[in-house]
Amino acid sequence: MAQQRAGQKRKVVEIPLAEQVEDDVLGNGDFDEELAEDEGSDGDEEFDEDEEEDGDEEDSDEEPLSEDGEDVRQQLRDLKTSSSVEIVDPDKDPDTDLATNGTYTPEKRPADLSNYDISVDANGNPRYIYKDIEPNYDTDDSDAPITKNTIGNIPLSYYDAYPHIGYDVNGRCIQRPAKGAALDSLLDSIDIPAGWTGLTDPATGKPLNLSREELEVLKKLSRNETPGDGYDPYPDMVEYFTGKGMEEVMPLSAAPEPKRRFVPSMHEHKRVMKIVKAIKEGRIKPYKEPTAEDLEKEEQEQEYAQYDVWANEVPRPDHAMNMPAPKLPPPGYEESYHPPPEYLPDKHQQEEWEKQDEEDRTRDFLPKDHSALRKVPGYAKFVKEKFERCLDLYLAPRVRRSKLNIDPESLLPKLPDPAELRPFPDHRSVEYVGHKGRVRTIAIDPTGDYLASGGDDGTVRIWELSTGHLKQKVRLSTTDPVNIVAWRPVISPPILAACCADNVHFIVPTDSTSPTAQAEAHTLLTAGFSAAPTIPTKSATGVDKPSPSSWHTPIPAHASQSISLTLSLRSTPKTLTWHRRGTYFATVCPSSGSPSTAIAIHALPTHTSQHPFKRLKGLPQTALFHPSQPKFFLATRQRVRIYDLQAGKLVRELLPGARWISSLSLHPGGNNLLIGSYDRKLLWHDLELAPTPYKTLRYHTRAIRDVAFHPTLQLFADASDDGSVQIFHGKVVEDGFENATIVPLKVLKGHRVRGELGVLGVVWHPREARCVSAGADGVVRMWA
């Protein structure tokens, strides 16, 4: 046996024991001789080596059996000469017994004597096993780590062939935890502990259990929340500089504000215009909330993805991997034109098949017998089936929807019967013939007895309304047409204003009025000449500016025709409207060179004119006064503005949505406005509602020239270039609890279209349901 060096660095000192011999050999004297030889040969060498390494032994951290080297040599001699092994008394010290008797029996010391145990190794030598350090509160290591695997970064897959998975801090093997069926049976037998995650700790291979705090942290991380407690993502703003008591007395900088802060950014303007252009072109669409049908359709597309595997099928040779498209089965005997008798139905089966619904029938036909193929008739449902197949391909997948049994008439608003809304004009009553050329304008006097008309022949004619008899004819010009005729709204004295070229002539009827009324009218018209003259305005050079209007007596040719006064303007008036009191009237001249003089309000008793609109936006078309309030309605091409004459400001602006406004008419109540346009629209505006139209009517095929409300009845009419006059019923409730009701009543046709012009004007009788229309064919007609 190899000798162990006494100075070797080991915590356990192994002492070689004598070789086992039989009892008879141990008892004779030969053993002593052999021992003496062994001592003489091997023993000296052993002791010499021990002496050489004596210095190393002192530096070792081993625990020697005795303090002196001689004692060790003596113990070795005693062990070699020992003939038997004695049992050591447990009460004795093993070290003392080993030195005296040369025998040793392993025995654990009491826990209070030392921190190690002595055992016997494989060679029978004593082995010192130190106990694990158990930390307690008397030591500095109060928070000892839990036993964990110390294999470092070595993967656990390296230990798959071993029953253990690593080593702890003491070098002991960590056994592999139970898995598979054993773990399942264990979990089935016990309750799931708190913190159980179903995961495995990669370091120990055991189930990974987490505390409640760790689970809360993982839950917050998965929700993108802040894991820490007490964190407020939306704290209140701390007003460091504007809070109470922290206001800044002096600014941080005394530099003036740069100009760029007050000028719009050109870069932002370009970007905004790009976005606006994209929206107009449809490249950017607003977000639309998906409906329930859209969501359901999207879910179906995601869940049931259908693909046509035979969409591009081509003929291929027969092969095990080739699956052709399924085909219809070949026809059977029942589909033959001459089937066997057993396939033909009898009378009872035929009646039963005919009584069944088409969906309940097992087949779509009944077998029939024909003696020859040429006697087979055509398929009766061929066209229907082909049509339904086309619908399937066009509308697939088709869904059978239950048809709603709703009467279309019930969906329309319930309008009153036109027969219940009488009286209204429905036929032609009287014709007034005499003008040469177009009749441009007509007007009925306040009494309802006389009608005035003006046309392209330059004459003004006064007719008796009921009979059509011509009462008076006044020629204003031989070259210029008469554009406007308008009666003064006051009954007495009667005065007729007529516009021809740049002049407004005031006519006093002679044949239809008494001499006293004529004298009163002449006095009213000439009273303004005695008023104080107006002071002309001067230019910057001191020269008097030319007046935009002038009042003067008529020329002798006009004075002989009962014209008492003439107003000269600088441009041709197209509209003349009277104030309800007959004292003021307004003229509109669209062709005026200056927008400030296009609209003028004239005072008849004082012969004065004023131009209240200095800066007018748009080209003026027509105007009118409010019937009961000091308001003035002015229409440009596309807008209608309402002005307050007392306050001198704009009150409201209406947006009809028409391209070119042609005429206006205000309801007698003053809350509803009727607008006609050249783009064939008839617009009803409720002034108490939005600035956009309440109703838009499109019944004409050409431009609308004139519109008119009835002064007393719930009727209105419009005249169009298509040669027709349309009559409507317009019910207006003054209390405002009900919207206006509009009912089309009658289309009056009788005027001929000349030069793409039809009916140029329409007016109502002040009391009766009669209207008069003027046409481009030179005829004036009354409808009753």
Automatic annotation (TrEMBL):
Component of the NOP7 complex, which is required for maturation of the 25S and 5.8S ribosomal RNAs and formation of the 60S ribosome. SMART domains: BOP1NT, WD40. This is Ribosome biogenesis protein ERB1. InterPro entries: BOP1/Erb1, BOP1_N_dom, WD40/YVTN_repeat-like_dom_sf, WD40_repeat_CS, WD40_repeat_dom_sf, WD40_rpt. The gene is ERB1. Belongs to the WD repeat BOP1/ERB1 family. Residues 326-343 have a biased composition (Pro residues). Its main location: nucleus. It comes from Cryoendolithus antarcticus.
